[in-house]
TrEMBL record, chains A, B:
Compartments it resides in: Cytoplasm
EC number per UniProt: 6.3.4.19
Function recorded in the entry: Ligates lysine onto the cytidine present at position 34 of the AUA codon-specific tRNA(Ile) that contains the anticodon CAU, in an ATP-dependent manner. Cytidine is converted to lysidine, thus changing the amino acid specificity of the tRNA from methionine to isoleucine.
Gene3D superfamilies, A to Z: HUPs (3.40.50.620)
Protein name: tRNA(Ile)-lysidine synthase
Origin species: Polaribacter pectinis
Reactions mediated catalytically: cytidine(34) in tRNA(Ile2) + L-lysine + ATP = lysidine(34) in tRNA(Ile2) + AMP + diphosphate + H(+)
Length: 437, 437
């Protein structure tokens, strides 16, 4: 296998030559063989081992084992101990996902601190097929069937073309020792069932299953690539950008052969899960919205507006500003400055008469029933009416902040329009310049 | 299940209402239950049973069984006996494929003769998943993972949303009898292994596997739809049509993100199998070609030319025309007519002096070394040079026929240019008008 592996690296991963490599090592046969192979080929390797403390004493023995291994094979070994269960509970994650997140975050830190070029993991062909079948049992789309990528940023998986059998044979033939992974069966329940009960039957049906599968994966990747091309092209026609908001043209979406399928492809990277609801948004009333972990999709007349969720605020949160404050940075950056003379205001700057203010001032979002006296106009106006006349989208309304006095009267629709009541008067002795920075 | 089924038909197959239906029945539980269900719902059904004679006496007992069933449930039953093995051998097909071809061909005949609106088959959700896994073991692309279509032309599969378990339960609860299919295990080896060894494990992992799977299939179908859209759109830019030949612009193909993937999608319906060879054709010399069962793809400078294969001819086949023949229809339609006067010839019509001809005349394709004396020119010219000057593509050259005399001298490059040597002379007594009809 060493010669085959050498050739495989030269052909498929020539960029690894001469680079600083970090191998993720558990102590299991896959990562141990990966380490031996790169060591034999005289690559510049270091090891990184995570002790997830999930298997008590066994976890510590794994650590001891890989430290010993590193002495013969690599420049150095980094080890870390994670309180995985605690982290998982705190972040409401499964143990498996928690371990993965912790692991990759740490690798990233090591890469940055020690200038590694690539992180190598020991995933192999059987892992790839197992993942395919796990995704089949869980339900998936095409993206779940295109395999583990062999190169993903600086993560490289040089063993993906090799079977578990080849790897174990290599270890056995070369008297390489490894640690059996006796990890918690429950977290690996599905994978173990697939590994031990399904893969053997599939391999009986087709002894070259893994090779066949690798072609299948290639085919599906190519399909995914064509879909990407189509989505890229259609995005240009459907999506426009305004400030930080993406506007999806509903009429154009509805003209596509399968609007629901396109919506999924257009929005999948924004962590939505309720695809039926999103599809229904096309024909729902303005104002309806769907929230993902990270984004908000809002129906606004002929458009779906996509924006990042703003976790710092909610409509009910108010920010108080005490007398003599010079500057606030939350929820937005404003400065307050005493000036001797009023100059001409604009959308970014207003001048107010300090005597007319009542402290503490308040910065808040708009609410139903809000009204103000727009500068330059006679009388008062409902804020909702003002917004409508200005043709603000629902999202823009949501993102607008109001500067109010202690009585909750609007001084400034920030960035848009000042209120008549607090304008600088001829009699004003103290003038405050408020500006968006 | 009857109520669920009734609703399922009303929602998903409303078009079946009031139509003449033909149910394909083997005698197995699936098709027997399908028959009972449609009979209970008072649809207008007839049955069609194929006796493939693959299981000797058992096959005949199946036939007896379904004939009896038809008396209680349907208008009529059509039966047919196939010598499947003989047909399979003759056509070099597997028994399974042979049986399928025979079956669907017969259904088509029945539909046409008896004016059925739809043919119903009893495929169910487990069949669908089994097919997915069979395709996984054999290797496949996306098209192998999008499931059996529930409606495909006039073939309808109303049970695709139901599991084998539901179907068997329905039969058991309603004391419905059926015939166990003890068919030749070898032809069903793979399917049986998947049915009995793999599906049960997957269902242990996920008890709602079939439901999950049906969503997966929907997702993959949607992906396939997007690919189709992309291919349709890109085809407009890449393919032009000239006569019956499709011209694929090589430079434009090479500009695509993944030319190989696109070539597959653009050409998959033409029965090619050697996709690497087709990809290599992009950069190969002019004149190289790849043949499928039905089509020919030829590299010709900046284009790939796709044409139907012409099975009636090959370069070495010649067609003889005896003296006094009035008309030939093969390899192309020509008429030979004695006329008193020469009129003006054109690409479709020539006039020759009969005295100068030597019979039998020959119609053949061109060969290396061919030359002729083009009418209206001095001297002789190599045919290859003539083709080049006329800027004929390789495919057009191949499709050109020559009319020659018994000595193999060219009289007419048919449809293109006559030869000087056989023109009508002032001294000619007998004139023959040769025309393409």
């Amino acid at each position: 296998m060493l010669q085959k592996f050498k050739k495989h690296i030269a052909v498929n991963f020539p960029f690894l030559e001469g680079k600083k490599l970090l191998i993720a090592i558990s102590g299991g046969v896959d990562s141990v063989v990966l380490t031996h192979l790169f060591s034999e080929l005289n690559f510049d390797i270091s090891l990184a081992h995570c002790n997830f403390k999930l298997r008590e004493k066994e976890s510590d023995l794994d650590e001891e084992f890989v430290i010993k291994l590193s002495q013969k094979t690599s420049n150095q070994i980094f080890t870390i101990i994670f309180n995985t269960d605690k982290f998982a509970k705190k972040n409401k994650l499964s143990t498996q996902i928690a371990a993965r997140d912790l692991r990759y975050k740490w690798f990233k830190e090591l890469v940055e601190t020690h200038n590694f070029d690539y992180v190598l993991t020991a995933h192999h062909a059987d892992d790839n097929l197992e993942t395919f079948l796990i995704n089949l049992t869980r339900g998936s789309g095409l993206d779940g069937f295109t395999g583990i990528p062999s190169v993903n940023g600086n993560i490289v998986r040089p063993l993906l073309a090799f079977s578990r059998e080849e790897i174990i044979n290599f270890a056995t033939e070369n008297n390489i020792e490894w640690r059996e992974d006796k990890s918690n069966a429950s977290t690996k329940y599905t994978r173990n069932k697939i590994r031990h009960q399904i893969l053997p039957v599939l391999k009986e049906i087709n002894p070259s299953l893994l090779e066949t599968f690798s072609n299948t994966i290639e085919n599906l990747k190519e399909s995914a690539q064509i879909i990407e091309d189509r989505i890229e092209e259609i995005s240009k026609k459907i999506i426009s950008k305004k400030n930080e908001i993406l506007r999806f043209d509903i009429i154009k979406i509805q003209q596509l052969s399968n609007p629901k399928a396109y919506l999924y492809q257009l929005l999948k990277k924004y962590h939505f899960t309720e695809w039926n609801d999103i599809y229904n948004l096309l024909s729902s009333q303005s104002g309806k919205q769907i929230i993902s972990e990270t984004h908000r999709l809002l129906k606004d007349r002929d458009f779906l507006l996509l924006s990042k969720r703003d976790f710092s605020t909610s409509p009910k949160i108010t920010f108080k500003i005490e007398k003599n404050t010079l500057e606030i940075t939350e929820p937005l950056h404003l400065s307050f400055k005493r000036v001797n003379e009023k100059s001409i205001g604009n959308k970014q700057i207003i001048y107010v008469s300090k005597e007319l203010l009542e402290f503490p001032l308040i910065v808040r979002k708009w609410e139903n029933g809000d009204y103000f006296f727009p500068a330059g106009m006679q009388g008062k106006k409902k804020l909702s009416k003002y917004f409508k006349d200005e043709k603000l989208s629902l999202l823009e309304k949501e993102q607008t902040w109001l500067l109010c006095n202690a009585k909750n009267e609007i001084i400034w629709v920030i960035g848009k329009r000042q209120d008549n009541r607090f304008l600088v008067q001829d009699t004003s002795k103290e003038i405050v310049k408020v500006s968006i920075i």
